Amino acid sequence: MQIKEKVKGKDLAIYLRKERLNEDLINNGVGRLGWLKFEVESATPINEIYIDEVNETKDLDMMINNIIRANIEVLLIWSIEDIETNKLFELIQACINSDTRIVSFCEADCFIENIKNYVRYYTKKLSNR
User: Fold this and answer.
1) Residue 121 near residue 127, CB atoms below 8 Å
2) Which residue of 22, 63, 80, 117 lies most exposed, with the fewest beta carbons within 10 A?
């Protein structure tokens, strides 16, 4: 299924982490952000764009809070590798709890679903202690 079909008519947010310090993702022509916008522009409006600098998580934290508040139905990312490792569990848990779908440009849906299943498994395991 193409990205447009996955996001059509949904409250959509995009998250990216810059690959290098002070990278200009907004005015950078057809970079990663431009490509993601191109993929979804005719299917649904983009409600929020979250962009973190290298080694920062300010926008990621804000996005997770918005997911928890159920303000985001679909999260579009370039790659799961854009998510700081120490925040991945928190993001996935928030998406599971609020039924927010993660759509990755680089990874298949089954890969993202496998990560969600691991988080579900470990959350259940920890809660049974």
Assistant:
1) no
2) 22
How far does Cα 18 stand from its chain's mean position? 14
Per-residue pLDDT tens over the stretch 78-102: 999 999 988 999 999 999 999 999 9
The structure tokens listed for 6 are 């996955």
* Three state DSSP letters for the chain: CCHHHHHCCCCEEEEEECCCCCCCCCCCCCCHHHHHHHHHCCCCCEEEEEEECCCCCHHHHHHHHHHHCCCCCEEEECCHHHCCHHHHHHHHHHHHHHCCEEEECCCCHHHHHHHHHHHHHHHHHHHCC
Domains of the chain: 3-127 (3.40.50.1390)
Name the burial class of residue 27, with classes exposed (0-12), middle (13-18) and buried (19+) by CB atoms within 10 angstroms of its CB.
exposed
b/e sequence 78-115, b meaning 16+ C-beta within 10 Å: bebebbbeeeeebbbbbbbebebbbbbeebeeeebeeb
